[in-house]
Task: structure prediction
Amino acid sequence: MKHSILLLTILAATILSGTSTFGQTPKGVKYTYTEASDLTITGKLMPGKTTNPYHRVDTVKYKGFTPTENFQVRMTSGMACAFKTNTTSISILTEYGQVSFPTNTNGFSARGYDLYIKQDGRWLYAASGVAADNKMDKPFTLINNMDGTEHECLLYFPLYSEEYSIKIGVDEGKSIAPIENPFRHRIAIWGSSYTHGSSTTRSGMSYPAQFSRTTGLQMLSLGCSGRCLLQDYFCDVLCDVEADAFVFDSFSNPTADLIKERLVPFIDRMVAAHPGTPLIFQQTIYRERRNFNVYEETKEQAKMDMAASIFKELKSTREGREKYKDVYFIVPDAVGDNRNATVDGVHPDNYGYTLWAESIRKPIVRILKKYGIR
Result:
């Protein structure tokens, strides 16, 4: 009995520390560190236009954000680093700015890192980890005991934290170098907590990240939990983004009345700023929380109905079909047949996001092909 209690105590302490013993530096290994921004950064919304290379938006230039939004657009959600190395282990040393501890999102996802390595032409999960909460300024080993041959790596950054520095450590005497961006084109995606990656257990499991890995098309994420409300000041940013296409998850946060008030002016600004560029709007997903909640059922269905009716109206006339010929409306699915791919009745789990990414793959790829985006 005493041994069982001791074992449970040790296990609880390990869990609460924020990382487990696999994060310890292998005995005798010394690392040399390279700043991630000196390698190849993928998924950055506005490259070269932020003082901090890990910020998504320059909050000095763009105004109007609430304090929460100001923090969110400085997070690295959707960004990753691509490189090649022949190391046998990889260490991460992070200098954090503002950090977040969301209740429904794993620490590996919110503050940690997710590593994929290319094998037989596809990205294969390799490791994920995060420094202990009381050692966030210290390095931790993400993976060890690799074979020492050269591998192409893709390291996803934290979804819900701001970083001033991300240093990638390899064995002393081993090499690390940038590779070409493994993803094609620039497809900006603005959205809610869904696009941000809420309730994922690893940062590489957000649906934009999964979409990129399966299609090879580069998603540039501006997910902002709870704050995708078709605001003018977010439109200011998106109008300045250089992208081949835009995707929106813009009906999950606003009410039906806000959608009615703001959607058409928002679309008109985007059409004017990006003529001839595909603008792909996603219907909000079905939230399982509405199943036995009359209020939620009414509210959620009203949002869905409002968005669908506006898009139908936009293209109901010859003039509208011409003006909005590059505007599209698609319906994602994060529920699936078992109706159980949710964490809290609102946000999908990892599998739910896999369903979402797969549900939009064919319609988005089909639309993009019309514009030579392959």
User: Anything to note?
Assistant: Confidence is low (pLDDT under 50) at residues 1-22. Residues 294-314 form the longest helix (21 residues). DSSP finds ten helices and 15 strands in the chain. The CA atoms of residues 230 and 326 lie 19 Å apart.
